Amino acid sequence: MNRAQIEPNLAATTLRRAQLNAERTAVIFEEQEILFGEFGDRIRRQASLLRSSGVCVGDRVGYLGFNHPALLETLFAAQALGAIFVPLNFRLTAEELTFIINDAGIHSLVVDDALRPTLETARE
After folding, report:
1. Closest residue by Cα to residue 81 from 112, 115, 110, 114
2. What is the mean pLDDT of each run of 10 residues along the chain (124 residues)?
3. Domain residue spans in the chain?
4. Which CATH class for the 10-123 domain?
5. Using CA atoms, how far apart are residues 74 and 63, in angstroms rounded to an integer?
6. What is the pLDDT of residue 38?
7. Staple 78 to which of 83, 97, 105, 114, CB 3.0 to 4.6 Å?
8. Burial class (CB in 10 A: 0-12, 13-18, 19+), 21
9. pLDDT score of 7
10. What local confidence, expressed as pLDDT, does residue 8 receive?
């Protein structure tokens, strides 16, 4: 496979659905309903942020957070760029996170604000 070419994936399908059915429900989380149009915008925004941080095809993008729509947005944004999504368990210790982040070769990491203290401890 040519690494510069991105195979069709769930991100492409979701973004296409956002164009065709913008007013249909994409995600329901707790009391929040996110329509495909808005979900597609969020994915594109996250992909743009990742691209501006230097994420390219084949890079690894980590996500340290809770079950939240941001997890899906990051997953699909990474896929849209041809990057590899690496979910991290929020229950891990700073030492465990450090090992996994380094071992996986994570290029960029999306972190829930509530978990930043754990990540800061891992950096020390």
Report:
1. 110
2. 66 94 97 97 98 97 98 98 97 95 97 92 72
3. 10-123
4. alpha beta
5. 7
6. 98
7. 83
8. middle
9. 67
10. 78
Q: What is the pLDDT of residue 69?
A: 98
As given in the structure block, the two tokens for residue 88 are: 């991290």
39 contacts 21 by C-beta, under 8 angstroms: no
pLDDT at residue 98, as a whole number: 94
Q: Which amino acid is at 20?
A: L
Spatial separation of the C-alpha atoms in residues 2 and 5, rounded to whole Å: 6
Contacts of 111 (CB under 8 A, 6+ apart): 64, 65, 119
Structural element, H or E, at residue 32: strand 32-35
- Whether 64 contacts 109, CB under 8 Å: yes
Close Cβ partners of 85 (under 8 Å, ≥ 6 residues apart):
60, 61, 63, 74, 75, 78, 79
Rg from Cα positions in the chain = 15
**Which pair of structure tokens corresponds to residue 104?**
């996986």
State the pLDDT at residue 121.
81
Residue located via tokens 């429900």: 25
Tokens of 44: 């594109």
